[in-house]
Amino acid sequence: MTGTPPTTVTGVRLWRWRRNPIRRHSDVVEAWIVLLIWAVAFLGGVLAGVVAAQAMDSAFAARRDQVHSMSAVLTDEAAKTPPGGSGNDTSQVWAIVRWTDTDGSVHTGLAKVFPGAPAGSRVIVWADRAGRIVSPPPSGAEATLEVVLTGALVAPLAGATVWAGGRLIRERLLVRRLAEWDQEWKRIGPEWRNRSGGKG
């Protein structure tokens, strides 16, 4: 059976955690930083995703509180095809509608309706508190999907940001460790060469 034994692989990965002659203080610091980075990247990513999802859900709730639906009447027959569309196009078209607000005032405005809808047709429109027609808020399923997608996108981005920051810290530690090894070699290098020369 060939290959590196699992114990050897584990030993290589965990050498910074064990006492050994070549381990430096910066190696121990790096080991803790790596552990901290992975923990923060995972937990921070999850937390960021949850916070973003909750913020999106709150925004949808606020939007639903600021608009209301009502029944409106189409004042004229709607265009049979959207501008630039074909007769088989099922996209909606803009048309003038009239509705009575909750305070009894009559309003008119543009709303999306199905092509060819006859005058007098009833349509549901959404209006804000100022009486202006606005786009409908996301439905329950749409809102849930957007909330979930927001959390799912933010979580890995936040984790990747933390990981990238940790990567920069590790690179600085590597430079420091190489400098320490260089200083150590300057100290013991001459002695090593002298001993080797004496034996020769």
From TrEMBL:
<keyword id="KW-0472">Membrane</keyword>
<keyword id="KW-1133">Transmembrane helix</keyword>
<dbReference type="InterPro" id="IPR039708">
    <property type="entry name" value="MT1774/Rv1733c-like"/>
</dbReference>
<keyword id="KW-0812">Transmembrane</keyword>
<protein>
    <recommendedName>
        <fullName>Integral membrane protein</fullName>
    </recommendedName>
</protein>
<feature type="transmembrane region" description="Helical">
    <location>
        <begin position="31"/>
        <end position="53"/>
    </location>
</feature>
